[in-house]
Amino acid sequence: MSRRLSEGRLLLATHNAGKAREVAALLAGHGIEVVTAGELGLPVPEETETSFIGNATLKARAAAKASGMVSLADDSGFSVAALDGAPGVYTADWAEKPDGTRDYAAAMAKVERLARHARDRRAWFSCALVLAWPDGHVESFLGEAHGEWVWPPRGAAGFGYDPMFVPSGESQTFAEMDPARKHAISHRAAAFRLLSAACLPD
Ligand SMILES: O=P(O)(O)OP(=O)(O)OP(=O)(O)OC[C@H]1O[C@@H](n2cnc3c(O)ncnc32)[C@H](O)[C@@H]1O
Ligand SMILES: [Mg+2]
């Protein structure tokens, strides 16, 4: 049996505003008020694991311990078949500049430079969502969205690598489509559906 959330406040253990916006939208209407790790000034934990679930667990546990609140972390990334799944868990690292800021145009250009000669254009996003309670209990969920990478990047909505990904059966990139459409078919939405069925109050 999974442990369910009770109504009340939930800490979103992320410093990424794009993710926080999407997770808050997915939680809307469930009677749960959200506050983010960024708003509380919590430290950014070092992501030392080699899987999405591992890193999401580490982030959720650190936030629950620091705040005493039930915490939800998201660890996600972009994978390219021709690159054997890279950048994968290192998706954020590929965007990181020496001064610690991120350059997603450069990160997307790196993916294109490494993969441009491959005929196989398949790519996918993964999202691990982990809930951690202050007593150490965790619940974990994994979602994926499959499609193809495209070049040049298109669209200004969304965040991160959205402009270079077209999900299967769609013609627009995640960054061109209405945010509501991305919320219906994304890796984050897939993980959230599992979380919702297992852990949200009825
Ligand atoms: O760790 P937190 O604080 O949550 O924020 P982060 O941005 O560092 O998040 P991750 O460590 O999980 O790295 C995820 C990377 O994958 C990218 N990413 C994740 N979900 C995405 C989405 O829906 N669309 C585009 N890019 C996404 C995101 O921009 C990051 O570069
Ligand atoms: Mg991170």
Automatic annotation (TrEMBL):
<feature type="binding site">
    <location>
        <begin position="159"/>
        <end position="162"/>
    </location>
    <ligand>
        <name>substrate</name>
    </ligand>
</feature>
<feature type="binding site">
    <location>
        <begin position="187"/>
        <end position="188"/>
    </location>
    <ligand>
        <name>substrate</name>
    </ligand>
</feature>
<protein>
    <recommendedName>
        <fullName>dITP/XTP pyrophosphatase</fullName>
        <ecNumber>3.6.1.66</ecNumber>
    </recommendedName>
</protein>
<feature type="binding site">
    <location>
        <position position="76"/>
    </location>
    <ligand>
        <name>substrate</name>
    </ligand>
</feature>
<feature type="binding site">
    <location>
        <position position="46"/>
    </location>
    <ligand>
        <name>Mg(2+)</name>
    </ligand>
</feature>
<keyword id="KW-0546">Nucleotide metabolism</keyword>
<keyword id="KW-0479">Metal-binding</keyword>
<dbReference type="GO" id="GO:0035870">
    <property type="term" value="F:dITP diphosphatase activity"/>
</dbReference>
<keyword id="KW-0460">Magnesium</keyword>
<dbReference type="GO" id="GO:0046872">
    <property type="term" value="F:metal ion binding"/>
</dbReference>
<dbReference type="GO" id="GO:0036222">
    <property type="term" value="F:XTP diphosphatase activity"/>
</dbReference>
<feature type="binding site">
    <location>
        <position position="182"/>
    </location>
    <ligand>
        <name>substrate</name>
    </ligand>
</feature>
<dbReference type="Pfam" id="PF01725">
    <property type="entry name" value="Ham1p_like"/>
</dbReference>
<dbReference type="GO" id="GO:0000166">
    <property type="term" value="F:nucleotide binding"/>
</dbReference>
<feature type="active site" description="Proton acceptor">
    <location>
        <position position="75"/>
    </location>
</feature>
<keyword id="KW-0378">Hydrolase</keyword>
<feature type="binding site">
    <location>
        <position position="75"/>
    </location>
    <ligand>
        <name>Mg(2+)</name>
    </ligand>
</feature>
<dbReference type="GO" id="GO:0009146">
    <property type="term" value="P:purine nucleoside triphosphate catabolic process"/>
</dbReference>
<dbReference type="InterPro" id="IPR029001">
    <property type="entry name" value="ITPase-like_fam"/>
</dbReference>
<dbReference type="GO" id="GO:0017111">
    <property type="term" value="F:ribonucleoside triphosphate phosphatase activity"/>
</dbReference>
<comment type="subunit">
    <text>Homodimer.</text>
</comment>
<keyword id="KW-0547">Nucleotide-binding</keyword>
<comment type="function">
    <text>Pyrophosphatase that catalyzes the hydrolysis of nucleoside triphosphates to their monophosphate derivatives, with a high preference for the non-canonical purine nucleotides XTP (xanthosine triphosphate), dITP (deoxyinosine triphosphate) and ITP. Seems to function as a house-cleaning enzyme that removes non-canonical purine nucleotides from the nucleotide pool, thus preventing their incorporation into DNA/RNA and avoiding chromosomal lesions.</text>
</comment>
<dbReference type="GO" id="GO:0009117">
    <property type="term" value="P:nucleotide metabolic process"/>
</dbReference>
<dbReference type="InterPro" id="IPR002637">
    <property type="entry name" value="RdgB/HAM1"/>
</dbReference>
<dbReference type="InterPro" id="IPR020922">
    <property type="entry name" value="dITP/XTP_pyrophosphatase"/>
</dbReference>
<dbReference type="GO" id="GO:0036220">
    <property type="term" value="F:ITP diphosphatase activity"/>
</dbReference>
<comment type="similarity">
    <text>Belongs to the HAM1 NTPase family.</text>
</comment>
<dbReference type="GO" id="GO:0005829">
    <property type="term" value="C:cytosol"/>
</dbReference>
<feature type="binding site">
    <location>
        <begin position="14"/>
        <end position="19"/>
    </location>
    <ligand>
        <name>substrate</name>
    </ligand>
</feature>
